[in-house]
Amino acid sequence: MVRAVVIAAVVMVGLPCHGAFAAAQAGDAGEQVWDLASQRGIARDFNAARPNARGQTPAFPNQTRAPVIKDDVRLQTRVIASSLEHPWGMAELPDGRWLVTERPGRLRIVSADGAVSPPVKGLPAVDARGQGGLLDVAVRDDFAGTRRVWWSFAEPRGGGTNATAVATGVLSPDGAAMSDVRVIFRQEPPWKSTLHFGSRLAFAPDGALFVTTGERSHNEPRKLAQDVTALLGKVVRLDPEGGPARGNPHIPGGRPEIWSWGHRNLQSAAIGPDGALWTVEHGPRGGDELNRPQAGRNHGWPIITYGVEYSGQKVGEGRTSQEGMEQPVYYWDPVIAPSGLAFYDGKLFPTWRGSALIGALRDETLVRLTLRDGKVTGEARYLKGIGRVRDVRVARDGAIMLLTDANDGEIIRVTPAP
């Protein structure tokens, strides 16, 4: 059943409330109206939170804790579909339906009115332990003619090892099955880990396919984020049919698929209004990062990073900068646990055009960043308590679509309140 909630994000939306929203009034069956302003007295400015990493200073103004955006937008949320088991990625089809992945290995089609299809047949097996499973999904603008789909997943590789992989296939006209299924990318080396797979997919304007990978978290494999002969902790750029894309950087001794390296666990990727790839990655405690990865650049992990280990100890030598290594465009301390990224280009929120919209798992919010000349100028957080936001997309009609990661995950449509 479609369920609607109206949220009035009044005054400074950067003031998230702690606890449930206060109900302003009850609507018809299946609909409620909630008023964020009624919780204003216990709200707390997220920029006032104590950092996890003491004594670290940003490299330039607004690299962290940018000014809170003042916004009087009123938001309406509508649950389009529920009972999805740990959904991870989604892609809109030309007819307004959505492809949605569930981590246990199921790909489903969700209609505009919330009807959820049986699992699409023909996908390869996944390793769904820990953070693994069926991950992102993407289509190109020519889907109506080709019906070709791409998806990323944690691939079992034998002996308890696994690795991020990307496959492609053709969706049948009735949406029931995939044919011509081929794995076009396999992360090397595989590892015995259930953590840090990445993995987002983003098609560049020139048709190349960007894929993000994690560095598998443990102390030994994380070092391979700095090893250009390995595909852990990398952004890779592929030909959608397989193999490295033309025009990739020449990295001495490096794999030809690599676009950039020195990343930790990238679960957000999108093409920005500037036509460039932007990513957001999970950092350590106090080190989540927004980046604009460029060809052949080293982003430093685990040699440099903001934040600290989960234990509170320094990461490596505790350095936040080093010559030859890139600084993040922005970082969060404390972290938001980011997943999903979209740049708003719709008509429903005209003042949001060009903003980066990021899902927050830990913060259970939708994060909005404004940018100018490649730098962050402001931050806002909306819908506090909406759930663990795993993915964010902008629908063709301008609505913002959220995917929440839970045993009973939801697709939520966000529009301006009437």
SSE layout and pairing:
Blueprint: E1 3-8, E2 22-26, E3 31-35, E4 74-84, E5 87-92, E6 98-102, E7 106-110, E8 134-139, H1 143-146, E9 148-158, E10 161-171, E11 178-186, E12 201-203, E13 209-212, H2 219-222, E14 234-238, E15 258-261, E16 265-271, E17 277-282, E18 288-291, E19 297-298, E20 330-332, E21 338-343, E22 356-360, E23 365-372, E24 375-382, E25 389-394, E26 400-404, E27 409-416
Parallel strand pairs: 1-3, 15-19
Antiparallel strand pairs: 1-4, 2-3, 4-27, 5-6, 6-7, 8-9, 9-10, 10-11, 12-13, 13-14, 14-15, 16-17, 17-18, 18-20, 21-22, 22-23, 23-24, 25-26, 26-27
Content of β-strand: 35-45%
Shape: globular
User: Mean of residue pLDDT?
Assistant: 91
Structural class: mainly beta
Could you spell the SSE succession in H and E letters?
EEEEEEEEHEEEEEHEEEEEEEEEEEEEE
Low-confidence stretches: 9-43
The helix content is: under 10%
Question: How many beta strands in the DSSP annotation?
Answer: 27
Termini distance? 21 Å
**Rounded radius of gyration (Å):** 20 Å
Which strand order do you get reading across the main beta sheet? 2-3-1-4-27-26-25
